[in-house]
Automatic annotation (TrEMBL):
The gene is eno. This is Enolase. Mg(2+) binds at residues 241, 286, 312. Residues 4-132 form the Enolase N-terminal domain. Binds a second Mg(2+) ion via substrate during catalysis. Its cofactor is Mg(2+).
Length: 422
């Protein structure tokens, strides 16, 4: 048994330059650190991060969350065996006392929970991806990689948040990354040819001016062809994170797609999404409808054929919402973000529940990231099959992609079968 002796926490900065929580767990046999990411296009049902308000860092400071780690969470876990992740996470939830972790903050709680997992793996002298595995770890996940960005991540531009590519024709991780790198380079060249600077958004995707949403899809298609691949579901496919909640006008019940000059009701939005899937080789579509439109999601699920319907703001890595989606058939995949759940144990529970029910878990980063690679190990440990980290640029993204190169070297580079049901 290795007991937790102490926990430290600091306010550090994330990839947007915003304050976030870093925690370190100390034991006699070693220590481990975890740094918490933060979303911009957050779902309203996710676990709540605590920010200070007031003048410090424009109200975004996390001193209260940092203090909560040392004042309330440390006493709740000191003396416990560091490998008892589930019991420790339960104690953290009890110390907070709210379902959404809004008292002490999901950023405080996850900081400790993540650092406990990392410390336990270090103490056992094993990689995190085997420590977090039930028995054997799974394969390297197939990445879906952001090429073009819009919505809240681009601070203007198209409303659709992520246009991604999925290297479905690649058999190995290395081949997948090289494929996407080539496509990204080709898209960058096309943007430059238009006399526009290829500046990147929060997740490293390009965000050139667009006259319509179709133009973004066409740019992806052209980049794939320029790179020598086929824009096709079995070669280089498309994925989209619509993040529709963030351009939905709840009062008017309309989706305002200003880039296309339209304002759509639910039926109109469903038809538009289906139109995209008919025109382009889309294999995965995330948050195409408002986060609380359960009836709309069910309807769309019934009309999509062979396209993964992925819930992010809709399911918020929450067991209950996932359970409801499974029962009602409202989604076929769940995005998994540790800080939406708030603890490692809750996150693992969501992955397990999804896998039992035949839904695909897609392990995801946040738009405000840190150079913490835990999510890469988590995805491998649980055989999640798919991973969404952002673009092949910016170090907070690359640390995850590069961690997978290391793991691939140890475990073998083969990706899960691309023809598995999406
Ligand atoms: O919507 C998403 O899937 C994520 C990552 O792309 O964004 P954010 O972290 O801002 O919620
Ligand atoms: Mg999303």
């Amino acid at each position: 048994m290795t007991t937790i002796e102490a926990i430290d926490a600091w306010e550090v900065l994330d990839s947007r330059g915003n304050p976030t929580v870093r925690a370190r767990v100390h034991t006699p046999d070693g220590s481990g650190t975890f740094t918490v990411p933060a979303g911009a296009s957050t779902g309203s049902h996710e676990a709540v991060e605590v920010r200070d308000g007031g003048d410090r860092f424009g109200g975004l400071g996390v001193t209260e969350a940092v203090e909560a780690v040392e004042a309330e969470l440390e006493p709740a876990v000191v003396g416990r065996n560091v490998t008892e992740q589930a019991a420790i996470d339960e104690a953290l939830l009890e110390a907070d006392g709210t379902e959404d972790l809004s008292r002490l903050g999901a950023n405080a709680v996850l900081g400790v929970s993540g650092a406990v997992a990392r410390t336990a793996a270090a103490v056992r002298d094993e990689p995190l991806y085997t420590y977090l595995a039930p028995e054997e770890p799974g394969a390297i996940p197939r990445p879906m990689v952001n090429i073009l960005s819009g919505g809240l991540h681009a601070h203007g531009g198209v409303e659709i948040q992520d246009f991604l590519v999925v290297p479905r024709g690649a058999d190995t991780y290395e081949e997948a990354i090289e494929t996407v790198w080539t496509v990204r380079r080709a898209v960058r060249d096309r943007i430059e040819e238009r006399g526009v600077r290829p500046l990147v958004a929060d997740e490293g995707g390009f965000s050139p001016p667009m006259e319509g949403i179709e133009e973004a899809f066409e740019l992806l298609r052209a980049g794939i062809l320029d790179a020598g691949f086929e824009p096709a579901t079995d070669d280089v496919a498309f994925a989209v994170d619509v993040a529709a909640t963030h351009f939905y006008d709840e009062d008017a019940e309309r989706y305002r797609l200003e880039t296309d000059g339209v304002s759509l009701d639910r039926e109109g939005m469903i038809d538009r999404v289906l139109g995209w899937t008919e025109s382009y080789p889309i294999v995965s579509i995330e948050d195409p409808l408002f986060e609380d439109d359960w009836a709309g999601w069910r309807k769309l699920a019934g009309r999509l054929d062979g396209v993964q319907l992925l819930g992010d703001d809709f399911l918020v890595t929450d067991r209950d919402r996932l359970g409801r989606a499974i029962e009602s058939g409202a989604a076929s995949a769940v995005l998994v973000k540790m800080n939406q759940a708030g603890t490692i144990t809750r996150t693992l529970g969501v992955i397990e529940r999804a896998q039992e029910a035949g839904l695909s878990p897609v392990v995801s980063a946040r738009s405000g990231e840190t150079c913490d690679s835990t999510m890469a190990d988590l995805a491998v440990a649980r055989g999640a099959g798919q991973l969404k980290v952002g673009s092949l640029a910016r170090s907070e993204r690359l640390v995850k992609y590069n961690r997978l190169f290391e793991i691939a070297d140890e475990l073998g580079p083969t990706l899960p079968n691309a023809s598995d049901p999406v």
